[in-house]
Every structure is written in C-alpha cells, then in structure tokens.
Fold these 4 entries.
Entry 1:
Amino acid sequence: MQTEEKHPVSLETLTTLCKRRGFIFQSSEIYGGLNGFWDFGPLGTELKNNLRDAWWRDMVRNPPPGPDGEMLDIVGLDSAIIQNPDVWKASGHLSGFNDPMADCKQSKSRYRADHLFVLMPPDAEGTAYAFLEGEENAARKKVQRKAKADPDRYEVKPFPEVASTDLSRIQGPDATEPGTLTEPRQFNLMFKTFIGALSGEGDENTAYLRPETAQGIFINYKNVIDTMRVKLPFGIAQVGKSFRNEVTPRNFIFRSREFEQMEMEWFCHPDEAEKWYNFWVETRLNWWASLGVDLRNLRRREHDEDELAHYSTACADVEYQYGFTAPGFGELEGIAHRGNFDLTQHQESSGTKLEYMIQETGERVLPHVIEPASGLTRGVLVLLNEAYTEEFVPKGDTEGGPIPANPGAQAPEGYETRTVMKFAPRLAPVKVAVFPLLKNRPELVEKAKEIHSELRKIWPVNYDQAGAIGRRYRRQDEIGTPYCVTIDFDSLEDNTVTVRERDSMEQVRVPASELATWLMSKGLSV
Ligand code: ATP
C-alpha cells in the first residue's frame, strides 16, 4: 500500500525489471520476437495466477454481499476458445468488431486511427505532425526541431477529425516526410482459423479465436440455469485467453494480441438493472483497492453517451494511472449495462428460448445483464506499476529504515538505492525466502534446508545461500518477497530464526517451530 506520493515508473524500467527477474519475456525472443505477444516467466506466472485466484475467490467462491446485504450467487465456467462462427455473427463481432486504422505507406506501420492525434500548424500549408496517444511530447519536440516553430501555437486534433484534404501535409509518427498516411479504414480484429485436418481455407471451414470470454457465458446461460438451480439474479464468471488482432499493440502487456480476461455476466430482472449496475461499478473499483492499489491511482470514468454501444444504457471504466499515461489514466476494467442485447441476439439467431421464468409469479423475462470485464494481463501491469518502488537505504543495512525516493534518483552519501516490489502478500509470487547465514557451515545449511522444505509445503519459497545477507535481501526485495528468514548460530542454540519484513526492513526473532503460524498471522494466506 502506498503512503507517499509516488512518481510514476517508466515502462522501460518495468520492462527491464520484468525481463531480468523472470516476470515477463518477449514472446519467441530467440526468433526475433513477435509483435503483440508476451510470455510469462516463472515469477510472472505466479503473479498472474495469484491475481486470477484472488478474482475467482472474491467473485465466484466468496462474492461480496449485495446492496441490501443479501448473499450473491455466482458460478464459474470455462468455455472453448473456438466456438461456432454463428456465435460471432449473433454477437455482432463479425460485422462490428472493427477498429478504424490508418496505414503509413512509407514506414509500413499501421495505427489505430482513434489512437492518433495531430499537431496542426497555425497556417494552412505547414506540415502537421501525427503522434500516438501518450507521445505528444516527442511530437512537440519534432515541431521545434523540424519546423523550427513553437509547438504551443499548434492545435492538437484527433486524427479522425482531420479533413481528408489535409492528409497530404500530415507526417506520420514513423515517417520522414508528409503525405504517407492513408484515410482510416475498418479492420476486423478477430483472428481467423480453419477447422478440420483436410479442410481447405474456404468460408465453410472458417472459425475465429474468441475476442472476449463473455460470449462463451451467454451461450451457456441456459445450460447453467438448467443444471445449477440458480435463481435470478445470479452471475456466471470465467477467466481465460482472448485474442484480438490489435492494429497497434503497444505499451508492453497493456495492449497485446493474446491476453487474458476475467469477466462476469450478472443476469438480473430488468427493473433492477440500474441498482446492480451501480453496485458492480462501486464493488469492482473497491476490489482493486483491496489488492493494495492506491485509490489515488484509480478512478471511475462514466462513458459519454456517444461512446456507448447502441444497446448499452450505461458503461463505466475503472481506470488506472499507469506510468505511461500519467498524469492521465487508462482503462483497466469496463463495467457495462448491456440490457438484454446479447440474450436477444442469441435467442433469435439460435432459435433457443432464453427467457427465465420467475417461479413465484410465473413472469417470463429476458434478463438484463451487467458485465464487469477486466483484463487479467492488464491487471498484472497495474500490480507491477503499483508495486515498483525505489528507496534509499543506509549502506550495508545498518541503522535506520528506508527513505522514499523517485525512480532513477541518486542516493545521498551513506545510502544506496534499493528496488522493492511492494506486492500485497496475497499476490507476491514468492512468499518467503530462507537463508543460512553462511553456506560453508553444514549445520546452518542443514537447518535452513529443513525449514525451507517445511515451508514449501505451504507456499512458494526460495532458498538462497549465495553472497552476503544484504545482497540476498536485495534480490528478494526486487521480486517482492514479503519475508526473509535467516538461520544463524543462535538458531542452533535456541531454535529461533530471524524474520525480516520487506517494507519496514524490521527484523524479529521467531521460534522455528512457530514460524508457519507466525507468517500466517502476518497475512500470508494458504
Ligand atoms: P480498448 O478500447 O482499450 O480496445 P475495450 O474497451 O475494447 O478496450 P473490453 O472489450 O471492454 O476492452 O475488454 C475488457 C478488458 O479486457 C479491458 O478493460 C482490458 O483490461 C482488457 N483488454 C482488452 N483488450 C486488450 C488487449 N488488447 N490487451 C490486453 N488487455 C485487453
């Protein structure tokens, strides 16, 4: 949990740390990588699984009480990634899941038109400079350097609002001359594949990788009602991979072409949809805060009327202040009031009745749906952003606690910088590290290994005997391990160990026989 006002960490610093410490690697790296795809390393996998499990526990197994204190009923699902293509016709994805894009004829780059902005010069002829959202500063420098003009006199315009007659004087973000950007065109974001070993690549064999997990829920809604004795209102949740052929994948794992989502469809009586919409927006924002995300870095953004899908009556995003959006915010989760659009579409297209009968009154309704849809991989980026901390600590871990520092700042005399990932203990990829004080004393090593093998029955635990204790602490700080346990000569005498807490760096002696219980009492859940 953050107490001081922190300066945002750059994406470059985060990406480097993630690679160096085994959180996230570029996909297919030894073959030169593949744009828009990432591989989760050993620690990233643990972190992502912990976030997924926290969501599942707090949404499915033990959801919060409803607005009137009632118990909520939410069940889980794991539907196939490839579904009957008719699903995507009915949902509107085949015809409507498009992003407008612009190509650059010179650099061969392709941009989402709604992510492009243009610095328009005050005169009608001068060159205008296009830039991607978040890269305005670089574009302003270009104006100074190339046009030798004052960028403050230029007007920022969204690219889709630029007249087509002005295209010839716009220089693309990666171009060296103006006039190479095309007009925005629609681009379908679904990945195609072909079914059957002997199949040709004809239309009749075409299928799609799902671009969201939500439709798998709608097409199983009737199965769930028929088998699970759920009563309206209830939810169906699932976590899994989604694929979008994003035009401009970027900002690390913020926007990738393969990612994971955590989605829940809340089915309710149409008369109560408004109440549930407000409840879920509030609940979801608070959930991210419950994971240790500072509320100052979170905000609720209600969509404007012209942003809403035609069937949706309200939609709000939970936004986070990422390092690369600061001081602005970017989407983390969307909570949409979808009305009965999806069930109506699937009912009509499949010919299967999807109405729900309220037993007490005999009333038949097509439930309305509130959908909290968040990105699991994007959530990992939030956790990494939020956890990343640099601090000044007295050299050699002598006296005094850590002093907050801004990323990249120089340590004052007598101090050194430590990088520490302040993950909430529940999310930390490694929970405990065990060290023998010296690696060349068999009795210390033996006892440390004994304690290590006991603790690893409960948690992911590291064992490290290499180098000075201070260096071993730093290694664990950098991956966010909440507790380090050292076995020293006193341990051999009185069977106690030193436990050092990550954030305060405070040390206490704990009887080895009570270690696991002590750690649990400090918030390490099983
Ligand atoms: P955007 O407008 O940024 O493309 P969206 O509003 O289409 O996103 P949704 O369809 O509402 O996104 O998806 C729900 C969540 O899934 C998003 O809030 C985000 O966390 C995650 N998500 C969507 N697209 C991507 C992606 N390409 N990479 C990583 N996460 C994504």
Note: The chain has three domains: 12-97+193-385, 98-188, 430-521.
Entry 2:
Amino acid sequence: MDRIKMTTPLVEMDGDEMTRILWQMIKDELITPYVELKTEYYDLGLENRNATDDQVTVDSANATLKYGVAVKCATITPNAARMTEYNLKEMWKSPNGTIRAILDGTVFRAPILVKGIVPYVKNWTKPITIARHAYGDVYKNTEIKVPGAGKAELVYTAEDGTEVRELIHRFDGPGILQGIHNTEKSITSFARACFSYAVDTKQDLWFATKDTISKKYDHTFKDIFQEIYEKEYRSKFEELGIEYFYTLIDDAVARVIRSEGGFIWACKNYDGDVMSDMVATAYGDLSMMTSVLVSPSGVYEYEAAHGTVQRHYYKHLKGEETSTNSIATIFAWSGALRKRGELDGINDLVAFADKLEKACIKTVEDGKMTKSLSLISTCENPVILNSLEFIQAIRNTLDSLM
Ligand code: NAP
Ligand code: MG
C-alpha cells in the first residue's frame, strides 16, 4: 500500500513522561505505517525546555503561526518538586500558557463518545464542546480585605488625566473588595474564535452571561458577540443551517442538562473553568477528552486534555506494566492530520484521520480497552490491555477499515 503523502509539515511538539512514551508508540504503530509523515519537530520535554531556556516552546508556537497546524503532547508544568527532580535552572512557565499567549487562542474541549461509556446525563447523546475565554475577569483580579468602616470607589483615570468615579460601597465595618477587568480586544478574539470554530465544525454556538445583573460588564460580552455575529458570521451560519443562540447563564445551565448535546458552549473565564470540569466528569473520563486551541487568525493546536500521567510513568520506569489510555492523544494526531489534509486539499489524509478515530472507537466498543476505561464501561467482559497492546489492537481495527 502506498503511504499518504503530505505537502506541508505539521508542527510536532513532543512532551513528557507517560504521554511521551505513548507519543512514540502512536507514531510507530498508527501513523508512519500509513502516512509519509512530514513534521517540524520541537522537543518540549522538560529537559530540553530547561536546556534551551524555554526558547523551544516559543519557537514551536512561532512555527505554528507559520504553518497553521500543530499537535502537542502533554508536558510537565514545573513546580517545586520538579525543580529538584529535573535540576531546573528556573521554574519554567506552563508551555500551554506560553503557546496560548503567542497564538492568542481559545481552547475548545470535547468528549469522545463511545458506546458502553454512558454519560451521567442520559440524554447527552452527542458531545458538548466547551469554549472557555482564557483571559481576565477573576483570574486577573485585585483584591482588598477591608479592615473597617470607610468608602470604596471604582476610579478610572484616562491618559489625559480625566477621571470617572463610581461609589462601590460605604462600609460601616470590615468587608472585602475585588476589582476585575477585561478588554474589548480579548473578548473580540474570543468571539471570533468561537464563531469560526462553529463554522468549521458545523455546530450551533451557545453563549451565556449574567447580563441582566451586570449591565455593563457582562452586557459588553453579549454586545460584542452579537455585533461580530451580525457583521461577519450570520450569512455563513444561515448557509450552513447552524444557529447562534444567546441566553442567560442560569437558563443555559438548565438547557444544557436537558439537551442532547451536539453544540459549542462558549463560556466566560470562570464559567468555563467550572463548567468544563462538570461536563468532562459527566461524560465519563478525562482520558476521553480532546482539546484544541484555535487562534482568531485560524491557527490550530491539537492536544489531549489530560496531563503526562506521571504515576503510570514511574511504574513504566520500574519496568512494571502500564495500561494508559492513548485515545485522547491519538485524537490530537487525527485532528491535526485532518486539518492539515483540509487545508492542503489532501482527501486521503482527511479520510485516514476519520478511519483512525473510528478504529479507536470500534476497538473500545468491541470490548478491548485500557484499565481506566474498563472501570467506567458497561461492557460485560472487557479485555484489559496494556498501553502497547491497546495501540496494537487499534492498529488491527484500523487495518480492517483500510
Ligand atoms: P494527569 O496526568 O492528567 O493524571 C491524573 C490522573 O488521571 C492519572 O494519575 C490517572 O489516574 C488519570 N489519567 C489521566 N490521563 C489518563 C490516561 N490517558 N489513561 C489513564 N489514566 C489517566 O494529571 P496530573 O497527575 O495532575 O499531572 C501530571 C503532570 O501533567 C503534571 O506535571 C502537570 O503539570 C501536567 N499536566 C499537563 C497538561 C498539558 O500538557 N496539557 C495538562 C494537565 C497536567 P491513575 O493514576 O489513578 O490511574
Ligand atoms: Mg477547573
């Protein structure tokens, strides 16, 4: 069989620990036998980030801007323990944070659904994709613990020195204060990323805030979304038969629970933080959650939503058997290959990505899975496979689909 040829390289960002082990297995067993893989390789493993003073992370993000599509392995975000474990020069920042800052993106997370793993919400038969705004609000706040009676004001000083003041509260005793902000620029790119992703994946887009209570702050989010929709996206949405739908956040929560899924739910920063954990848990498992960073300029970076699965890696290092689920990482590869195929007009690559995903799902539905999946599956007699056996089982299924 001829291997599928690529024209533009994918930006490949390798990572750490157990997911780095899976990364190589996925390439060897599931990608290179079928595709003449063309990548520009960046080693984002912690050792190389340390050796390059984290320049490799910046370079990989810039390469993503250049080529348009990246696939990323999970990476360690250093903490105090990692400083000693890897003898680090500095506590390097989260690679995802660095990449997001350069690409200016929004992260979309969606569950992978398979028969036998039943969401806690029984009517959720299609995936719900959460898009979380990743800038500002309570995550960039300023707080004061008010010691006693006094007056609190909100003051804005323009560059020419003119002031706008609003009374927040006259305290007659101790209390608390919080200042939060956002920018039109950030909200606008968030909105564009959401609308383009909806067009891209042909799904409805829901957005919700508390604009009835927050008549300026939240209302601005609502207005910016509406304006961008009318000016730039309404006709595309109508052409595709998809809908943009705005409602109050409490109404949205009630509707989401009653829905069958199959839409994108755009959330403000805090709502997205909280709701993505709820949605992920309700669908079953973090190892079945995909994640893609979409920039307003239409650049894509695909990854798994989970981390480096450190505990499994230590077992692996001791020579013990692991049963780590590689599906979300495989879907990062298939997502990136499909997007590359779409952009470059390589239909075989798009079809291959579809088959690879189908093979993952069919393998699990046929009862072959990793340990963590067997614990949440309703499958009667699952065959529990180790990390490599599971990938090889997917390869067998894939061969039967080719
Ligand atoms: P994690 O790697 O997601 O693992 C947490 C636990 O979830 C695992 O110990 C495992 O449970 C289970 N799990 C996650 N993925 C799994 C899979 N594919 N197959 C089977 N089980 C899976 O999160 P963490 O332990 O909090 O973080 C480890 C490292 O990852 C940290 O250094 C963190 O900085 C990094 N991290 C990176 C990213 C990223 O690059 N996007 C995201 C999150 C965390 P059991 O051990 O009970 O089997
Ligand atoms: Mg959270």
Note: The first strand starts at residue 4 and ends at 5.
Entry 3:
Amino acid sequence: MYVDLHCHSYYSDGAQTPEYLVSAALERGLTHLALTDHDCLCGVEHLWNATPRAALQADKEGWRQLNLIAGVEISCDWNGLEIHVVGLLKELRTPTLDALLREQQNHRRQRAEAIAGKLDAVGTIGVRDYLAALPATALTRSHIADFLVASGTCKNKQKAFKSYLGRRGKAYVAATWPSLDRAVSAIQSTGGIAVLAHPSRYPLTRSKLSRLISDFHAAGGEAMEVSYANLDPTSKKRLLELANEHALYHSCGSDFHTLESGWTALGKYPRLEPSATKNAIWEHPRWHSIVTSGRTVFAPPIEESEA
Ligand code: AMP
Ligand code: MN
Ligand code: MN
Ligand code: MN
C-alpha cells in the first residue's frame, strides 16, 4: 500500500496536468492516488473520461496497477478560521456537492475580480488577461501570486502574499467560505469520506486544535491527515495521538502542487509506521467501495536495468 491522497493539478493551483500526476504516480510505484483540486472536480472528470471504467484487469498480470480515487479539497469556515477538508468521493456528482462547488467556483471568480480591482487601483494591470488564459476552473490567490511574479511586480510568491494577497496586503480580499458542517455534509452526500487536511498548518493552540477536530468529528468527518510534506516528527506524533483520541482514521498525502518547490513531490511524505496503520484510511469500511468507484490504470513492469 503506497498512497497519495492529496495533490493538485492545473485545474486548481497545481502546475501539472492530471496526466502528469498519473504518470508520476506510476513511476513512483504508488498504488492509490487521489486528485484533490481546490473546490473543483474538472481534473477528476477529465481523467474519468479518459480512463475506461473496467480496464482489462485479468490480462495485466505482473503489470503495475494504480487506483485513481475521485477527490476534492474544500475551503470552509470554522469559527472565522479557514479550514481545508479533503473529500475522498464515491459518487462524483450529487446535487448537494454540485451546488457547493458551483458556489465556490463563482465565489473564487468574484474574489479574483475584486483583487484585480484592488490591483488596478495601485497601477498593477493585466491580471484579468493572465487569469483568463489559465486552464484553472478554481481560481486561487496562488494564481494571482504567479501573475505578480511573472509581471515583475514581486520577486517571489512569498513576497506576493506578504505585500499584496495576504491579510495585510494591498490587494487583500477576504473570502467567504461555507461552514465546516456544510463541506463535510457535501462530501458525505457522495458516500465519501471527509478528511481534515493538514491540521498542523492552522494557527491554533493545542486545545483549540483539539476542539476543531472534535467539531469536525461531530459534523461527520471520519479521517484526518497525520502525515504530509514538511511535517516534523513531533507534530506527526501529536497528530497521531489526536486522531486516535477522536477516533479518526489516518490519511496521508503530499499536497503536491508544482515541481518548482523542491521539497514536494508526488508520494513524498513520511510514511506511516506499521503500528499506526491499523487505523489507516484504507481500513475504513467504505474505502473499498470508494476505490472501486474510481478508475484503474495499468503500466507494464519496470524493466530491470541491465548492469
Ligand atoms: P486561496 O484558496 O485562493 O486563498 O489560495 C490559497 C492557495 O495559495 C493555497 O492553496 C496555497 O496553494 C497558496 N498559498 C497560500 N499562501 C501562500 C504563500 N504564502 N506562498 C505561496 N503560496 C501560498
Ligand atoms: Mn493550493
Ligand atoms: Mn490545503
Ligand atoms: Mn492542498
């Protein structure tokens, strides 16, 4: 079992195509990959259309098999704080999830327009054309940060967030996200599993984080990420304790966005120790049905190189 249950394509703020993610996952020997773009399913739908549902499984003995899982990462609100919830979905479309994602994408477009207005006001022109040329369905501040770097306005993305897009930036526009409860319910409506994303990245004290996890569980959340890129061992241990305290399954993923940030790669995160895998998400009673609702791709075995 080698899973990556959190990554992004260029349909949200990732740099790569969904096809790249699939081939990188096969190359790295992953067994399961969930594409979890921010607030949109376009990348998943694209892969689903390109991949026949019933591949010729029996004929592929010895071939590498990669299970693709439909995923999404929903931005939502908990007591005024932005929280991200990953959904590992069974059905791709339900009225509840469709409505939520449509609202999110509209809100993201309106927010981008409001940010563009603020950039106009400080004489930084061109962001609308830049955004219109992107393949992204979910527009994020990350795209606008890319524009600020590409146009020579900022030296790098960190500076773009600090001077323009972050809370104290010149072009900051607050987002209004749906409640945590609504995000979890929309994921549940598909028969999927709601996973609390990167819990150590929120500005919360230990006790507040515990309260978030408790509220997430009460809302119907069933898993949380306990391992991801750049997570130090102390925080990882703490997250495992919290997951066990709140009876949440353990999930993990790279949150891969781009090859440009050298510290992330698909499948790159500290693997779960065997002692922690009894509560791994693949032990969840609905895991199998979620995987079988996905797609499977095959690749020939990697030839041993001749020494
Ligand atoms: P949004 O969801 O539109 O608020 O955009 C947030 C996205 O921007 C996140 O998912 C990250 O990928 C990216 N991001 C947030 N903060 C930073 C930062 N300081 N530097 C670079 N990227 C960031
Ligand atoms: Mn992102
Ligand atoms: Mn996130
Ligand atoms: Mn993410």
Note: The mean pLDDT is 94.
Entry 4:
Amino acid sequence: MNKVAFITGGARGIGKSIAITLAESGYDIVINYRTENEELQNTKKEIEQKGIKCLTVKGDVSNFEDCEKFTKEIIEEYGKIDVLVNNAGITKDTLLMRMKKEDFTDVIDTNLVGTFNVTKNVISYMIKARSGKIINISSVVGIAGNAGQTNYSASKAGIIGFTKSLAKEVASRGILVNAVAPGFIETSMTDVLKEEIKEEISKTIPLKRIGTSKDVANLVKFLASDESSYITGQVINVDGGMLM
Ligand code: NDP
C-alpha cells in the first residue's frame, strides 16, 4: 500500500505544489480545502491523471470539530496518515496601530491554532503506528519579524515553538516533526504586491529571484522521505539565502 500524505490547504499555491510533488513520489494524497472551486477540482484531476488516488476533505482548520471530522474521513478511507503537512495559512497585513483585534485573532486561529487542531487529531493515529512525519509550514518572518505582520509573524513563530516541543514529545514514538520556513514565494498570497516591489525584493535576495512553490515542495518531499530519518525539531529555510 502507498504511503498517505495529507496536505491542508492543498488546492492551490504552495500546498498544491506539495500535493503534486508528493503524488509524483508515489504517495496517495489527501487534500483539505475550505472553499469548493475549480482550482480544487483541477488539482485533484492533475493528481489522478498520474494514476494516484486523491481524496479531498472539506473543513476549516481553525475549527476543531471540522478537523476531527475530516481526520475520521481520512482514516475511514485509508486507515492511516503517514505524512501531515500543515500548510493552510492566511495573512491580514497592517501596522499594529491600525490592526483590529479580529485581524490578529483570525491569523493566529488559522495559522497557529489550525496547526494545533489538525495535528492533535492526526497524531493519535501516528502514535498507534509508531511512525509519521509532520511538516509545518512556518515562514522566515516567524524568525526575523516583518513590519506590518505582527499577527502573521507571531503565528509563524508560534509554529516554530510548537514544532520543537512536539518533536521532543514524540521522538520516542518514531514521529519526526520539522518546520519549513519559506522566504518570498510567488503565489496568490504574494500576488497582491506590485511588480516594482517584487523586483526590489528580488534584488535583496542573494540568489536574485523570488522562490517558486516547487522550491518549497522539493524540501517538503525530502523531509517526508526516509532520507530525512535523522532530522527532527528543525526549522529549514527555503529562501534563496534571504535570511542569513
Ligand atoms: P495561498 O493563499 O496561495 O494558499 C493558502 C491555502 O490555505 C489555500 O488553499 C486556502 O484555501 C488555505 N486556507 C486558508 N485558510 C484556511 C482554513 N481556515 N482552513 C483550510 N484551509 C485554509 O498561500 P500560499 O500557498 O502562498 O501559502 C501556503 C503556506 O505557506 C501558508 O501557511 C503561508 O503562510 C506559507 N508561506 C507562504 C509564503 C509566500 O511567500 N507565499 C512565504 C512563507 C510562508 P482557500 O482556497 O479556501 O482560501
């Protein structure tokens, strides 16, 4: 039986690229989505055309009951989850002076509490299996901070603390937990910026280009694989050298 990889927010952006890359590596794929749309159907189709099974499960990661429900659906279908990628995330950028309480709590609830909600439900099955890989998508701004992103940076820094603590808790059960910290990656999340600003950002990156979703997916693929069996509790940047 193929290994099963579960990617939250896997219908588009970085999550989609991770789902496709893991499908190409022979994992059966489960994609969590919040919004039913054409992008979701296209991603599912693209995976199935590779001869790989793709289950889609609806749910808002910030809602614990949703996470409980979709985890059960996955277990009913596959009986296991070998790899969990906590990818779903949002931004609500603004300076703290202008930030509404909801701008802060919505971002924390999706990015950080969402990572807890999904992991808490999935991990019991990994513990029973005495194996598993959990890969949490953080960000370089969770390490370095960024003006206009107090909410987002706090959520991504929180994910790093969560990753390290959980890695220590579950190492003895054969479960490896790592975080990936992307730099500036071309997706709809970063599409809001003007071309001139993107060019300015590229100039500050040692590798002189904005990252692609595939750059992130390749690292996730490595962390999901047996090749990374002596790596846990780490935060690995994929940022073209932006943060060093
Ligand atoms: P996108 O906005 O392109 O995609 C985000 C995905 O998350 C969508 O599929 C979205 O679903 C899903 N999502 C958002 N909120 C929820 C929720 N409450 N429940 C379930 N799914 C949800 O973003 P990216 O692909 O750029 O980002 C993916 C991850 O990478 C995020 O965690 C982000 O913070 C992180 N990251 C991105 C960087 C970048 O430069 N792009 C840099 C560093 C980190 P829906 O379609 O329903 O909205």
Note: The CA atoms of residues 28 and 53 lie 5 Å apart.
